[in-house]
Design a protein that fits this description.
2 copies of one chain form a homodimer. Chain A has 143 residues and is mostly helical. Chain A has helices at 16-36, 42-50, 59-66, 70-82, 102-125, 128-142; strands spanning 57-58, 86-90, 96-100. A 3-stranded antiparallel sheet of chain A has the order 1-3-2. The N and C termini of chain A lie far apart (38 Å). Chain A binds a DNA duplex (23 and 23 nucleotides) through residues 25, 32, 41, 43, 58-60, 68-74, 92-96.
Chain lengths: 143, 143
Amino acid sequence: MTDPNALADDPLARLPGYLLRRAANAMMTDLAARLAVIDLRISDASVLLLIAGRSDMTSSEIGRVLEIQRANMVPLLNRLESAGLIERRPLDRKSQAIGLSAAGEQCLAVVRNVTDTFEEHLLARIPAQHRAHFVPALMALLA
Amino acid sequence: MTDPNALADDPLARLPGYLLRRAANAMMTDLAARLAVIDLRISDASVLLLIAGRSDMTSSEIGRVLEIQRANMVPLLNRLESAGLIERRPLDRKSQAIGLSAAGEQCLAVVRNVTDTFEEHLLARIPAQHRAHFVPALMALLA
DNA sequence: TATTGTTATACTCTATAACTATA
DNA sequence: TATAGTTATAGAGTATAACAATA
């Protein structure tokens, strides 16, 4: 029980599913801490990155792509709007397009910097001989 | 936006960190559904698998190995005890050892069946040429 | 009829602070 | 002094049901 990463005594330590959960938790904790510096959550950043360079997506569409429930998009977008990062533009009397504001564009540059650094850091931890196999394996799990 | 897995239009779809999160969420949703059949949560099952064949670990020790906060172990173990799956044995006047009850041993066999099937199913989805690289890559992220 | 945006709600997971009793 | 077990609490993510207005 003196092992710092607590894996040595863990019979689950080599199960792919269990490792997948632990690795994702560790990496998301890392990313969340990096984004907290600019007062964003992971889901906030994912929305900003998704709507970068386009202002035609509705709340429901963004939710479908990012797998966020329609109902849960409401507080998320309200938060981003309160922070002045996004703007809503009526498409018709029912739907609204979500686009980055000027401040949102500026914030996006920082978000890209943070996420690029994070993704590099993540890949760098994977030994070179395994690295190229990682993304294809994960994509296969989502297919 | 008609793509069923909603990845085609997603500029994040090839970022390792983003994929890691999505893949873990998808796999854990799958595992949770399989375990729900026997009224267990993922963390419940991980505790049962961890203490299988030993009855010397305390609540705090289990938590350290599985990365579950001491405070969050309380309702978890209470639930397992209420279900009759574990027993507490005093080690001294402060600590208790957690062990499987007879019913817990029986339940463990089912848990093993469920998790083995799940892990096989997960690995089977990964193309053969990437499969052997998956666990080492995940372990590197936890090191 | 189906969809959008929304409200309300609830459950799970996770995290922290604090307390007591004991080692 | 440090640790075990516990209580209380809060934040975040996620899920469902339902509603009004509009397509």
